Amino acid sequence: MERILIPGAEEILVGHGLPEPLLPPSDRERVLVLTQPGARPIALTVAEAIDGVAVEIFELPDREAAKSLETVTRIYGRLMELALSRHDTIVAVGGGTVTDVAGFVAATWLRGVEVVHVPTTLLAAVDAAIGGKTGVNFRGKNLVGAFWHPSRVVVDLDVLEALPPDLTREGTAEALKAGLIGDPGLVEAYRSRGAGVELGFTVTRAIRVKARVVEEDFRETGRRAILNYGHTVGHAVETLTGLPHGHAIAIGMVAAGEISRRRHGFDADDQRLLLERLGLPVSVGDAALRLSKEAVVAEILKDKKRDAGGIRFVLLRRVAEPVVAHVSDDELEAALAAIDVA
Questions:
Q1: Are strands 30-35 and 2-6 parallel, antiparallel or unpaired?
Q2: Assign residue 242 a region: left if phi > 0, alpha if psi is -120 to 50, beta otherwise?
Q3: DSSP letters of 58-79?
Q4: Per the structure, how many domains does the chain have?
Q5: 291 with 216, same domain?
């Protein structure tokens, strides 16, 4: 398996099948596997691969319904019943929702226990499972969370290659985002081959971008913010519409690209065509949705990326040259108009 390290934080293994042993060496006695209904068959395989310790599977609700404090409380209750100690391990098997919740629970149970992620979606493999950001929703997306790095992330390409096209398409948005902020070669591969880019190439290149950025800024005090390209508007669209995360982020990248065009001459048209070629939406109109500008702005104002200076966007001067900047009301209006929000 290919091994990618975030020094002092995470070991990321990418390959076909599960490594042996699956978990890093430890004196653990118990493992709780967190998963969702759609990933349960993979969770069973993961549980069977963990030898010599007591293993239990705990199933979360589907999709964003899992990312609540009520769900977290239920997990805490089971951890107490199991007497899961600081020497034990939580394993997340699923998409970004599962890795977010599992990471948050691991960060806060007994002030921190080991967590290992086995992402089962492309989106989780290239983004959510990497980097130690955890969170649950509370009157807004991911407003309650912690930084807590998994000791290991296992990316099984066999699992990703078996995904239905819609889940692969959703994850492609985050993989492309990684290329746009840090890997021109990945962007060029998508430009020349579209969705036909080999999955192992996509995953390893996107992970390396994120690993490099996280290594420079573990707690998002500076450069790590560039990983939020497309997320300022994207999170608002996701919350208001229920669109899948990757689709909402694709729309958010169009909005950020419009401001980037106005400020820096970024080729926003090329980005838009690239997203369309990958089958991703580029406006709320594509998704047959109607959103008011007032509703989107109100949601943006709840976001973690605002500060005393106003609303911050990640912008691009060009591919792999991101910058974080406050935007004006006029620029925000233009960005929303670009995605058919008026």
A1: unpaired
A2: left
A3: EEPPSGGGGSSHHHHHHHHHHH
A4: 2
A5: yes
Q: Residue 23 has what pLDDT?
A: 98
Q: What is the pLDDT of residue 286?
A: 81
CB count, 10 Å around CB of 17? 12
Same domain, yes or no, for 139 and 63?
yes
- State the DSSP code for 24: P
Q: Which domain holds residue 310?
A: 170-338
| Residue 21, preceding peptide bond in cis (omega within 30° of 0) | yes
pLDDT tens by residue, 74-90: 999 999 999 999 999 99
> What span, in angstroms and rounded, lies between the C-alpha atoms of 105 and 135?
9
Do 78 and 227 belong together in one domain?
Answer: no
Cα–Cα dist 340/287, whole Å: 11
Element (H or E) spanning 325, and its range?
strand 321-326
The rounded distance, in Å, linking the Cα atoms of 249 and 236 is 10
Question: For residue 315, what are the CA distances in angstroms to 171, 254, 266, 308, 319?
Answer: 21, 11, 9, 19, 10
| CA-to-CA separations, 250 to 211, 215, 279, 302, 334, in angstroms, rounded | 21, 25, 10, 20, 17
Helix H or strand E encompassing 317: strand 310-318
Q: How many CB atoms lie within 10 A of CB 217?
A: 15
CA distances (Å), 323 to each of 263, 300, 318, in order? 11, 19, 10
Rounded distance between C-alpha atoms, residue 305 and residue 313, angstroms: 8
Tokens read off for 6: 């975030």
Contacts of 100 (CB under 8 A, 6+ apart): 67, 128, 133, 134, 135, 136, 142, 145
Task: Note the pLDDT of residue 305.
Answer: 62
Q: What is the pLDDT of residue 288?
A: 76
With a cut of 50, list the residues of the chain below it in pLDDT: none
**Rounded CA separation 72/66 (Å):** 8
Return the pLDDT at 139. 86
- Can you read off the two tokens belonging to residue 25? 């060496």
Length of the chain (residues): 342
Helix, strand or coil, per DSSP, at residue 84: coil
